[in-house]
């Protein structure tokens, strides 16, 4: 933390030395003039009346010469001081940060152009006034409090404060450093303030944190997908053996034998487990694909009866196709799985009567849009959206919704693989999925498939 600012003694001593040099030069010249001029007059003039007149002329000459000398010396000194002051002013005004100086009582002694934009006034209008002349009493009290804290600490004090620029009306976050200034004698001159606009920096830090979290989530899903894919392959191989042997045993068992019932239960459980492995493979993007050109409007329209039955009699499915929809290249079977899983998930989120809206549209994603989507580049996409007016999700739940085996449903009501399969199928078809959900305000899924 910087300490207080003190006027350097060397600067004051150099000013004293300069003044002594001028005084010594003047005294030396005066002494020589008086001594030499008197000797010259005495040697050249004998008449008292003439000597008086010559002495008067000599005095006037002395005044003229010394005045000329003082004029030249003072001009050089003033020019030097003015030059240094002009350079200092140019430097201060060129600083993009706000710079200002206040007296111990809060009266402004100077500021730069950046600070002028804060108050919406020129430096000449600011000097001699206080904070209460430009900002609200609450904010002025805050500024005065921070000034007094810096004075009491005898060292620089740092704080953050939100301000509104009078010139533009823009709100900015100001990172402020206030430092007391002292003379060589220890007398307090005032408080020097430097304010830096850290609004963009704060946004960049927040954006960096968001992108890091997004990257970590993508890496986690990738690792979980690899693990799930490996487990699903091994599990599927064992299920194949179980299914084959159970089917063989069932085929040679007479219909009236009591052993048939346990064999049928084994087959049902194995087939159900096989479906789970297919969902795991879909999440891991290892499911066999058969992509072809698809018109989403046609594909979704063909599923309307199925989606209506899945939603149930109390929930209305509203279908809104977009005109002139672009074609996409996807696996139709996986597309059907994505649709059915999302509609079932929306149905389960609605308690009682409700609506599920299914819509399509052409979208051109820019760099700004892609900032919220992982592994997506700017370009033309076809968007499929599924929106419900159900219970919605809290942010911590929404962050985990695509993880395999994560479910908010009661035990025995869900496997936690439906949305994981959706995520994997969308990614396998080079698409992206995004959701927005708030507790009590429903959920919306957007799926983006690249234009074919």
How would you describe this structure to a colleague?
The chain has helices at 9-44, 48-94, 113-119, 123-126, 137-153, 199-251, 260-283, 296-302, 304-311, 332-349, 367-370, 395-398, 418-428; strands at residues 5-6, 98-102, 108-111, 157-164, 171-182, 188-197, 292-294, 315-320, 328-330, 354-365, 379-388, 432-437, 443-450. The strands form three sheets. Strands 1, 2, 3, 4, 5 and 6 form a six-stranded mixed beta sheet that branches. It has a five-stranded mixed beta sheet with strand order 8-10-11-13-12. The relative contact order is 0.07. With 452 residues, the chain is of the alpha+beta class. A hairpin with a 5-residue loop joins β12 (432-437) and β13.
When the domains are counted, the total is: 4
Helix content: 40-55%
- By DSSP (H or I, 4+ residues per run), the number of helices equals 13
- Number of E-state strands: 13
Using the 3D structure, state the CATH architecture of the largest domain. 2-Layer Sandwich
Strand fraction equals 15-25%
Assigned CATH superfamily of the largest domain: Histidine kinase-like ATPase, C-terminal domain
**What is the CATH fold-level name of the largest domain?**
Heat Shock Protein 90
Distance between the termini: 59 Å
Please write the CATH class name of the largest domain.
Answer: Alpha Beta
Briefly note the structural class of the backbone. Answer: alpha+beta
- Low-confidence segments, given as residue ranges, are none
The major sheet is characterized as: 6 strands, mixed
What is the H/E order?
EHHEEHHHEEEHHEHHEEHEHEHHEE
Quick check: average pLDDT? Answer: 80
Rg measurement, Å? 43 Å
The shape is rod-shaped
């Amino acid at each position: 933390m910087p300490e207080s600012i003190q006027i350097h003694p060397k600067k004051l001593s150099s000013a004293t030395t300069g003044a002594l040099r001028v005084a010594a030069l003047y005294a030396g010249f005066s002494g020589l003039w008086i001594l030499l001029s008197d000797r010259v007059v005495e040697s050249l003039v004998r008449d008292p009346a003439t000597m008086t007149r010559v002495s008067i002329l000599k005095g006037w000459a002395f005044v003229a010469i010394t005045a000329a000398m003082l004029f030249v010396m003072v001009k050089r000194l003033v020019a030097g001081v003015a030059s240094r002051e002009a350079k200092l002013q140019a430097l201060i005004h060129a600083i993009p940060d706000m710079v200002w100086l206040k007296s111990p009582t809060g009266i402004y002694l100077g500021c730069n152009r950046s600070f002028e934009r804060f108050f919406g006034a020129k430096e000449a209008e600011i000097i001699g006034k206080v904070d209460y002349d430009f900002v609200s009493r609450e904010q002025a009290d805050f500024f005065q409090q921070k000034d007094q804290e810096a004075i009491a600490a005898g060292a620089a004090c740092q704080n953050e404060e939100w301000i509104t620029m009078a010139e533009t009306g823009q709100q900015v976050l100001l990172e402020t450093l206030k430092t007391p200034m002292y003379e060589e004698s220890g007398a307090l001159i005032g408080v020097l303030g430097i304010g830096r606009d850290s609004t963009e920096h704060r946004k960049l830090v927040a954006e960096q944190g968001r992108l890091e979290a997004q990257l970590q989530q993508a890496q986690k899903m990738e690792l979980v997908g690899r693990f799930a894919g490996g487990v699903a392959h091994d599990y599927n191989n064992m299920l194949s053996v179980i299914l084959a042997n159970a089917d063989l045993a069932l085929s040679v068992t007479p219909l009236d034998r009591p052993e048939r019932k346990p064999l049928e239960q084994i087959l049902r459980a194995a087939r159900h487990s096989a479906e789970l492995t297919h969902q795991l493979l879909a999440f891991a993007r290892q499911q066999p694909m058969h992509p072809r050109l698809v018109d989403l409007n046609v594909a979704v329209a063909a599923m309307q009866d199925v989606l209506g039955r899945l939603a149930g009699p109390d929930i209305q499915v509203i279908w809104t196709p977009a005109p002139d929809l672009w074609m996409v290249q996807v696996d139709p079977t996986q597309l059907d799985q994505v649709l059915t899983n999302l509609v079932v998930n929306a149905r389960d989120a609605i308690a009682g009567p409700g609506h599920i809206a299914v819509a399509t549209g052409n979208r051109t994603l820019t760099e700004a849009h892609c900032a919220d989507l992982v592994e997506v580049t700017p370009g033309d996409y076809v968007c499929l959206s599924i929106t419900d007016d159900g219970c919605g999700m809290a942010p911590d739940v929404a962050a985990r919704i695509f993880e395999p085996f994560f479910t908010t449903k009661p035990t025995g009501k869900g496997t936690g693989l439906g949305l994981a399969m959706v995520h994997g199928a969308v990614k396998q078809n080079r698409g992206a999925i995004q959701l927005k959900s708030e507790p009590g305000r429903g959920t919306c899924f957007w799926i983006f498939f690249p234009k074919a």
